[in-house]
Design goal:
Number of helices of chain B: 0
Radius of gyration of chain A: 13 Å
Order of helices and strands of chain B: EEEEEEEEEEE
Number of strands of chain B: 11
Oligomer: heterodimer
Largest sheet of chain A: 5 strands, mixed
Largest interface: A-B, 21 and 27 residues
Shape of chain A: globular
Shape of chain B: globular
């Protein structure tokens, strides 16, 4: 299975943009890139996903490199509520296993 | 409100005493799954179910059983719990998505299990 690599932790100031990187150098053509986050004492929640093109939704933006070997989750204006563990996951089309890994722990500094 | 409900949220038990963690979703999702979360290991999939009476193993199925007799319920059964099954367990269900693309997973709030 293709794997993802994320930094263990990151810090950002409140009200500033945050760029969370993810490397997936062994990604294949049918792998979707998914992002989830897990707030303290909660289950993970969906953030965004994409295949090739950059994606935007109300929570975040996903920028995907042209060669698809890396991607960046962008939180445009971080709030304290965005402090969480962020997971970058590759989802093979038709494969029901979803491997989360250890993610990036994001700390927001007031 | 759309939700995935797990019970119990917290449980302390002893080795060998059978237990069941229930999971119920009210979104009419066909796909449901169980994960366990351990420090330093992230979330690992235990079992998943594509629909009623259809279940399959995830990455760490040993020591667990599941059943899917109704669409809304997907209980996780530990027939003979052992201390290495002490963990935080999450149930999830998934929306169908569009054109075969994976829909998003909805997770329950978790069940913290301690086996002594």
């Amino acid at each position: 299975d293709a794997k993802t690599t994320q930094p263990n932790s990151m810090e950002s100031n409140e009200e500033e943009p945050v760029h969370l990187p993810c490397n997936h150098s062994t990604i294949s053509g049918t792998d979707y890139i998914h992002w989830y986050r897990q707030l303290p004492s909660q289950g993970p929640e969906y953030v965004i996903h994409g295949l090739t093109s950059n994606v935007n939704n109300r929570m975040a933006s996903l920028a995907i490199a042209e060669d698809r070997k890396s991607s960046t989750l962008i939180l445009h204006r971080a709030t304290l509520r965005d402090a969480a563990v962020y997971y970058c996951i590759l989802r093979v089309f038709g494969n029901e296993k979803l491997t989360f890994g250890t993610g990036t722990r994001l700390t927001i500094i007031p | 409100e759309a939700q995935v409900t797990q019970n119990p949220r917290y449980l302390i038990t002893v080795t060998g005493k059978k237990l069941t963690v229930t999971c119920s979703q009210n979104m009419n999702h066909e796909y449901m799954s169980w994960y366990r979360q351990d420090p330093g290991l992230g979330l690992r999939q235990i079992y998943y179910s594509m629909n009623v009476e259809v279940t399959d193993k995830g990455d760490v199925p040993e020591g667990y059983k599941v059943s899917r007799k109704e669409k809304r319920n997907f209980p996780l059964i530990l027939e003979s719990p052992s201390p290495n099954q002490t963990s935080l367990y999450f149930c999830a269900s998934r929306s169908p998505g569009l054109a075969g693309i994976t829909g998003e997973l909805f997770f329950g709030e978790g069940s913290r299990l301690t086996v002594l």
